[in-house]
Specification:
Elements: E1 3-8, H1 16-30, E2 34-39, H2 66-75, E3 78-84, H3 92-99, E4 123-129, H4 139-152, E5 156-163, H5 177-188
Parallel strand pairs: 1-2, 1-3, 3-4, 4-5
Helix pairs in contact: 1-5
The structure holds flavin mononucleotide.
Length: 190
């Protein structure tokens, strides 16, 4: 059974991204996995300062909501990143969360090409919602996920649900049912 951390990087509770995440969570819990959901909306997570204190064995110098998230990140074996598409890429909330994982790196005596250090091993999932639904709508976001999370951080990609055609953001829940079903099945079959 997995320990799954679902990071919902939207500002709107019960709106599109949160609803898609809940479908995934329902499936995952029914399959017997332990799930912790963290809603980033309303939390302050600053971008990395690049001070490199964490490269000298110190914890991250910043005091913000990441302090409650680092223990959850340690706990999980599977990380689910859920984000609305903002200007054709991940939301700034998710980007800031990922930047701050810089502080979880460890020295690597045998670095692979393109990596200078090691990061905790995780399986990962990407869930996204967007207003548009072109064939290229999620291209930049998926590219970032593959380059950074899979190739650089070294996480194992379990898959994605890319829900286009969700309409405007805010309080509305407009995720097409086909994607809610896909997210549920994905969680159920993990
Ligand atoms: C700042 C901002 C930028 C957005 N950029 C895009 C975009 O580039 N492409 C797109 O299809 N939708 C875009 N959207 C729409 C949202 O991705 C979409 O409505 C999403 O489902 C909202 O998720 P939420 O309900 O969890 O807030 C944008 C919305 C906002 C507020």
């Amino acid at each position: 059974m997995r320990n799954i951390l679902v990071v919902v990087a939207s500002s709107h509770k019960n709106a599109n991204t949160d609803t898609l995440s809940d479908s995934f969570i329902r499936g995952a819990e029914q399959a017997g996995h332990k799930v912790r959901k963290v809603f980033l909306g309303g939390k302050t997570i600053n971008g990395c300062l690049g001070c490199n204190a964490c490269r000298f064995g110190k914890p991250c110098v910043q005091k913000d909501a990441m302090n409650e998230l680092y223990p959850l990140f340690d706990w999980c074996d599977t990380i689910v990143m859920a984000s609305p598409l903002y200007f054709w890429t991940l939301s700034a909330r998710l980007k800031a969360f990922l930047e701050r994982l810089y502080a979880t790196s460890m020295p690597d005596d045998h670095p692979q090409k393109g990596r200078y250090e090691r990061y905790p091993e995780k399986d990962c999932v990407l869930l996204m919602t967007a207003a548009d639904d072109f064939f290229w709508t999620f291209e930049q976001a998926v590219s970032y996920y593959r380059f950074n999370c899979v190739r650089y951080l070294g996480w194992r990609d379990l898959g994605m649900v890319l829900a286009g055609g969700c309409g405007g953001c805010g309080t509305a829940r407009r995720v097409p049912q086909v994607y809610l079903d896909e997210a549920y099945r994905f969680g159920r079959n993990l």
